Prior knowledge:
The complex is a heterodimer of chains A (375) and B (197).
Chain A: E1 6-10, E2 14-15, E3 21-22, E4 25-32, E5 42-45, E6 72-73, E7 78-79, E8 84-88, E9 103-104, E10 109-110, H1 120-134, E11 139-145, H2 147-158, E12 163-169, H3 177-191, H4 209-223, H5 226-232, H6 252-264, H7 270-282, H8 285-288, H9 293-296, E13 303-309, H10 317-329, E14 333-339, H11 353-374
Parallel strand pairs in A: 5-8, 5-11, 6-7, 11-12, 12-13, 13-14
Antiparallel strand pairs in A: 1-4, 2-3, 4-8, 9-10
Helix pairs in contact in A: 1-2, 3-4, 3-7, 4-6
Chain B: H1 3-11, E1 17-21, H2 27-36, E2 39-44, H3 47-55, E3 59-62, H4 65-68, E4 77-83, H5 92-102, E5 103-111, H6 116-125, H7 149-158, E6 163-169, E7 174-176, H8 182-188, E8 191-196
Parallel strand pairs in B: 1-2, 1-4, 2-3, 4-5
Antiparallel strand pairs in B: 5-8, 6-7, 6-8
Amino acid sequence: MSNEIKKLKVSKSLLLDCKETIKDFPLAYETYGNLNENKDNAILVFHALTGDQYVSGTNPITKKDGWWVSAVGPGKAIDTDKYFVICANVIGGCMGSWGPKEINEKTNEPYGLTFPVITIKDMVKAQETLLDHLGIKKLLCATGGSMGGMQLLQFCATFPNRTFSAIPIACSTSHSAQNIALNELARQAIMADPIWDKGKYLKKNIQPKNGLAVARMVGHISYLSEKGMQEKFGRKLQEKADYEFSFDADFQVESYLRHQGFAFVERFDANSILYITRAMDYFDLSRQFKGGLIEAFKNQKTKFLIISFSSDWLYTTKENKDTVIALNSAGADVSFAEIKTDKGHDSFLVNEPEFLKTLKGFIDSMHIKFKNEKK
Amino acid sequence: MKKEFRVIADLLPKNIRVLDVGCGDGSLMSHLIDEKNIEARGLEIIEENVKKCIYKGLSVIEGNAETELHQFPTKSFDFVILSQTLQAFYNPEKVLKDLLRIGKSVIISIPNFGYWKVRTSLLFFGKMPVTKTLPNSWYDTPNLHMCTIKDFFDFCIEKKINISKVIGVNEESTSEIKKSNLEIKNLFSKVGIFLLK
Lengths: 375, 197
């Protein structure tokens, strides 16, 4: 893979929810595998808050594994020998798509806080243009976990039947008070860092690293379960025999959080966290559609599989089931499975065999059905 | 496929919407889709079975019929099927009411506690019966509310539930049960299948 980020310059003008119209903006994306002649093997992946377009293989920018290598790749649950996998960086992000760290051509400076407040719907509308660009009328499947799942629900509501099947994972149709609160904690951590300077730090070519690292730590706590965290770290000390009676990282869990926090600042832009978490907080499908969720999901022919994780306290099984109920009420074709695991919200990103088997079983069976429909 | 499922399938018209409550591994749903072009959905509590359905491309929701039938809108299915599980609910009457709300018609099958082998087991051996249709011992059976075909017949009349058809099934034959032959069929049918409206 070359180190160059693939970018589509979106020429179609896009009316954002904040009423601003944009056009000629960059949308960075990556694809894996090959689109077959019948075009019946395309799968669109929506990434989560801190993800990017590099789903599988090696991320050419960070030189680390793609964020979903556990599920996507040759011979994996989403088999790139068989399927054509597409993923785009969300607008508002910082891996090449139009976001707050990009240069505003009018001022010749990074947007910073002059970037418009975007929504999940805006992200999805931008990504739909990529399907047109790639010549895909109907996807075999679209999937995503967490914010990726929210984008997927929005995608299905805004562009009905653009995908034959959909797998929203560990997500909801609106952000809960708890989730908004955690996002606010992350934002406040960033904004409390003096380097942040009302988002103007990029002009000085620096990052509010301390604030951004704390924001990431908040996230990491919420991605694990209480039990999972206890089993992984317990009260184990970090490479020492006794307490040091200081504020260094004595405990392994502290060391883990610090490591996660400070590794993150190398690859992410602080303003992007503000914008993307805001988009998540504003997400509320039933508010968007005047008739509520039934209106949002009416006339769906897409076959849905909702997956939740038993120990996920960020997007609980109950919230996922509420989506199932809404789809059922709208008469949509929906399946639901709860994966029993201690790995918390992170379950969809790690090697969780029961989850991966379910994912593969569903996609493979949908492929057979989709091929029959296309005949 | 189980004989009971064949009888149920024969009761269904083509091209309709069916909800199979307690759909197991989806074998009845697969049959209905293939043979009758039926749009089938399932509700199933056992995780392993849910996955088997998903691998087959069947639409299934993991959940407990006792507490989660409220998610299905009123009259959203032409038929709702409940195969040999009514007796396992804490509150079978409530579940039945929900099924009648969701489906325009309901098919319920019950393992018949009035079957002669069950009766003789209790009469001659003085022990709770263990048979093919009732394979568990008294201490580990999921069945909380066992009943006979006659019991369920009377129950429907008492609750003013409209019975369209009743079929008795045993190894050798299937036969229609009417009020006139109820006593004898209650003795010789292993399973009773009720079509309710």
